[in-house]
Amino acid sequence: MRIAVTGASGLIGSALVPHLRAGGHDVIRLVRRPSAAPDEVTWDPTAGTVDLDGLEGTDAVVHLAGAGVGDHRWTDAYKREILDSRVNGTHTIVKAITSLEFAPRVLVSASAIGWYGDTGDRIVDETAPAGTGFLADVVRAWEAAADPARTAGIRVVHPRTGLVVAGDGGAWARMFPLFRLGLGGKLGDGRQYWSWIALRDEIRALEYLLDRDDLSGPVNLTGPTPVTNAEVTEVMGRVMHRPTILPAPAFALKAVLGEFSTEVLGSARVVPGVLAESGFDFQDPTIESAIRSALGQAA
Predict the structure, then answer these.
(1) Whole-model pTM?
(2) What is the DSSP string of 41-55?
(3) Fewer CB within 10 A of the terminal residue: the chain, N end or C end?
(4) CATH number for the domain including 160?
(5) Does the residue 299 lie in any domain?
(6) pLDDT of residue 39
(7) What is the mean pLDDT of each run of 10 residues along the chain (299 residues)?
(8) Is residue 257 domain-resident?
(9) Domain hosting residue 222, numbered range
(10) Residue 162 has what pLDDT?
(11) How far separated are the first and last CA of the chain, in Å rounded?
């Protein structure tokens, strides 16, 4: 397939592109500057423009671009950037592909488990309604921005990704150095559920969604066994052979992280119902396996 990818330089995109190429696919990367290589196509999600000539003949689009949720403190301005980068970017991609003479067969348009809000210890799958809170509102608008592609007859899939366990980016890349120094510990009371997925399973699942013509709509990209933050902390300490006796109190997280602390301390017990029912096989079905994979250790 000829596959266009936005967000190709991010944590997920930078792993997905070489994976797809290794599988024999022709991959083009959408970049926010003048294209400088044959595999690049210029787009500007802020201005709403895409080099349409570069998208001609595309069979599929994987749209991953968006401002990092945890990259900055949640000021009003940055919250607007989080929302706009997702909604405007999706509008731009959808407008572009629906205007092509031959539209792609599938759009895999990124989403997140933020859709569900704080679920406490309640298990939820793709049938659960949207929750409440800033991120739930963002995800609703983000997914809705792809509606014109659905109307145009394009198969649209929304991979609702959980916390990606990786060594070179995301939450775990920030935690690994602290745990190596023996400074890791649970966050708050540690009872909040974290719905995680190993990076290699995230990449394999995205390719799986490209290939499965029978799958559309929301698909949770999370491991089969959500765990509490306290359990994550225990496994991290055991795998890395470090003590984990320094918890981060809730009040300290709120002081440092501001409103984003509600997401860190919130609980999301999300399971991959669609992937499980369709027969997807996880290479890292446990949090220990995922952490060892991120560290380059044998499971």
Answers:
(1) 0.94
(2) EEEETTTTEE-HHHH
(3) C
(4) 3.40.50.720
(5) no
(6) 95
(7) 96 97 97 93 95 94 92 86 96 97 96 96 97 95 98 98 91 85 86 95 98 97 96 93 80 59 80 98 97 86
(8) yes
(9) 2-294
(10) 94
(11) 33
User: Number of C-alpha atoms within 13 angstroms, CB side, residue 112?
Assistant: 24
Rounded CA-CA distance 271/214 in Å is 20
For residue 124, count other CB atoms closer than 10 A to its CB. Answer: 22
Number of domains in the chain: 1
**Six-digit token pair at 97?**
């592909």
Report how far residue 58's alpha carbon sits from residue 203's, in angstroms, rounded to the nearest whole number. Answer: 20
Cβ distance 22 to 200 under 8 Å?
Answer: no
Q: Which two tokens stand for residue 34?
A: 């003048």
Residue 237 backbone dihedrals phi, psi, to 5 degrees? -65, -40
The tokens of 30 are what? 């959408």
Pairing of strands 26-31, 2-6: parallel
* SS3 per residue for 232-275: HHHHHHHHHCCCCCCCECHHHHHHHHHHHHHHHHCCCEECCHHH
C-alpha closest to that of 171 among 163, 159, 183, 180:
163
**57 lies in a domain?**
yes
Q: Given this model, what pLDDT does residue 246 score? A: 78
Q: Where are the beta strands (DSSP E) in 56-116?
A: 60-63, 106-109, 111-112
Q: Of the candidates 46, 8, 10, 52, which has an alpha carbon nearest to the alpha carbon of residue 30?
A: 8
